[in-house]
């Protein structure tokens, strides 16, 4: 099968997420990396792209140049990944969708709910795929958890509890480091700091596994380092459409926690537990029964978990291959085989509505507010 052509914007040398996209896109041979505008410094971006094997005429200095350069090529890119800082996602994603390209956008998809709705409408009107990189949902054991919930193996879900709390911004003496400071500055980060950065992964995961949507929420935000305008810690209570009760804690000052993303699902007949630091294992406890460890790669897994497992049982796969699973599903979708579970623009929009709802709630002392985008009410 011929490879699809792939390009990336952002993800330059030394960036955090760039390597995961390069590994993920190319892991299964679906995509050839043929174009890029990788850095906010044009020369650095061109130079790095060429060192990664991109031809000089497709190593672009900025995204507008890439849009013009690719637009009319017979071998133009099939998919563009947007891995730039948050405030640029909307403009770049919309421009590429309008020009007829499929897009994988990093989270958060936009800065406002209006922008999110515009991306959803643009994707629908142009018929292009706009996916959002909620890559944790593509771990095989998360697909297993979702399939178990769907199959009724834990009964109706009463409660979902999730944390995405790390301690990497907990050093007050490092708070003025520019790589840290912008995340808590509204001019750069928007209305929310930690919740928009990490909390939305956890909220998406809760919706994904429970196969349900967040309907309303109540939030408590704190800036535990006083110089920070935006929150570095948040507790969010929520309710899902089907009645599930949700609890979410996200923090960047939880010193001692490393990646710190975990989720527990409590159903009427069983419970599930998963942690990103042990992603190959899903812990399952049937009511009244023994706790069991379900391992990636073992027999008897649900089809989705089996499909997205690569290497034998007990061999780690990890984050880049979870990203690769997103690219596999994208490749299938581009070739015409829709994949259930690929996070789309609707998920990006729901996250943005939840972020703005959480900010409104926190400002109103934790009042319960509608968390759905106006478009889906
Ligand atoms: N899905 C995930 O798990 C995950 C993890 C980390 C980061 N992210 C997201 O990825 C995005 C990038 O985060 P990061 O941590 O890699 O940031 P980073 O600051 O480490 O890197 C950003 C890169 O984008 C480049 N860039 C900036 N503006 C650009 C522009 N206008 N055109 C082209 N390139 C430009 C920079 O030069 C740099 O190479 C953010 O939106 C972040 O939220 C997602």
UniProtKB/TrEMBL annotation:
Start and end of every Gfo/Idh/MocA-like oxidoreductase N-terminal domain?
4-134
Coiled-coil parts of chain = none
**Gene3D superfamilies in the record:** Dihydrodipicolinate Reductase, domain 2 (3.30.360.10), NAD(P)-binding Rossmann-like Domain (3.40.50.720)
Report the InterPro entries cross-referenced here. Gfo/Idh/MocA-like_OxRdtase_N, Gfo/Idh/MocA_oxidoreduct, GFO_IDH_MocA-like_dom, NAD(P)-bd_dom_sf
What are the residue boundaries of the GFO/IDH/MocA-like oxidoreductase domain, all occurrences included? 142-272
Q: Which domain of life is it from?
A: Bacteria
Any one GO MF annotation of this record: nucleotide binding
Q: Which PANTHER family match?
A: CONSERVED EXPRESSED OXIDOREDUCTASE (EUROFUNG), OXIDOREDUCTASE
Name recorded for this polypeptide = Gfo/Idh/MocA family oxidoreductase
